[in-house]
Amino acid sequence: MNVVLGITGGIAAYKAPDLVRRLRERGAEVQIVMTSSAEEFVTRTALQAVSGKPIRSNLWDKEAEAAMSHIELARWADMVLIAPATAEVMARIVSGGAPDLLTTICLATEAPIALAPAMNHVMWSNPATQSNREVLEERGIHIIGPEVGSQACGETGAGRMLKTDLIAATVFNLTGGKGEGLLEGRTVVVTAGPTREAIDPVRYITNRSSGKMGYAIASAAAAQGASVILVSGPVNVSEPPGIDMVNVESAEEMYAATHEAISDADIFIAAAAVADYRPTDILQQKIKKNNEGMSLELVRCPDILASVAALDAPPFTVGFAAETENVIRYARSKLEKKKLDMIVANRVGRDCGFDYDENTANALWCDGEKAFPKSSKVDLARKLIELVAEHFYAVSASETQPKLTIISNND
Ligand code: CTP
After folding, report:
1. DSSP-derived secondary structure for 224-252
2. Ligand 1 pocket by C-beta < 6 Å: which residues?
3. 32 with 89, same domain?
4. What is the whole-number distance in angstroms between the Cα of residue 166 and the centre of ligand 1?
5. For the segment 57-68, what is each residue's pLDDT rounded down to a tens digit?
6. Which tens digits make up the pLDDT trace of 249-275?
7. Deepest in the core among 80, 96, 117, 137, taking most CB within 10 A?
8. Structural domain includes residue 302
9. Active site annotation includes 153
């Protein structure tokens, strides 16, 4: 895939060399086009070293134009990605102005355009920027992020550029579906995040799952060309583009939504950390602290994973096992007890698992296993999907009606 990577003048430009590496790791050819203000934040030398190509920036550079004109560059691109995208470049693209090489390419290309905005949160929420975002989206330009978090200016809010590996995964996702993906034409249902089990109108029982692993799995499956339905508990992760979202709260809602989505699924991946128990009764009024102690009566929640694996014609089913000890032994017993095709085991604890961006894992199946060393959840998800696809097709080859289900609570 040929990516024109536009870099504009925001502090997040310092992450651009890493973004180039993430894109190239996935096999992209990257041609960088930077604006003059981007040069205040990141050097040409670093960008040229990681991209392996001379940097373009000047529309009037006769030598560069002779080698590949801006129109040829616009045609060469399979995707134009601008990261970071400032409020200024968003406004300029909306206006149709083309005072520099990058905006000229945006006007001249027929390739999809994606912007990863990065700016101060007040600038992002400014009505002018929001109205520009709306116009860009109406025109089919993809807006990736931004995410909420602490910013370079010391404030906290929405405006931080999305993580580079997530941007790279999303770009491949957006340009996927060209007949080359491992899961082309397949439907994958993924559950992700925690569930919330209400106690009274203001309180609930939940767990530390962030949803990151499940969302990365959903993106990785979509990047391999699958149609993905993501059934998600409440999380703070941006919705991946190109995926059908079903948002739920409780285990019972997740059970119902999953079974509604599963009928045509080839693969089911349960990455959610579903509550095992919920309060027997949800009180209509807030509980008052009238006594020194109190106890809650709990009942078992339905096991979504086991119920899918027990269907008459189950999809290829993959579960996740988050354990604090005896990781492999407990995971293998879950694989057998729930009759899964595969289980992904990982250790969770103070310094790993839930809410961390990196993870290690072991995938287990009836007569084998594979260890995945520590890597980002996005990379791990990509490798897991490749493994799942490989096993899915192996099972499919021996069945007339192949189905694939992946299940996890690994995030
Ligand atoms: N799962 C599910 N529905 C539930 C509970 C778990 O679908 N009600 C799925 C998770 O998404 C995950 C796998 O089951 O894929 C986890 O297996 P489980 O045996 O439930 O793990 P734990 O809840 O951690 O079990 P235990 O507490 O006994 O270790």
Report:
1. TT-EEEEEE-S--SPPPTTSEEEE--SHH
2. 191, 251, 270, 272, 274, 276, 301-305, 319-322, 334, 407-409
3. yes
4. 27
5. 988 888 888 888
6. 999 999 999 999 999 999 999 999 999
7. 117
8. yes
9. yes
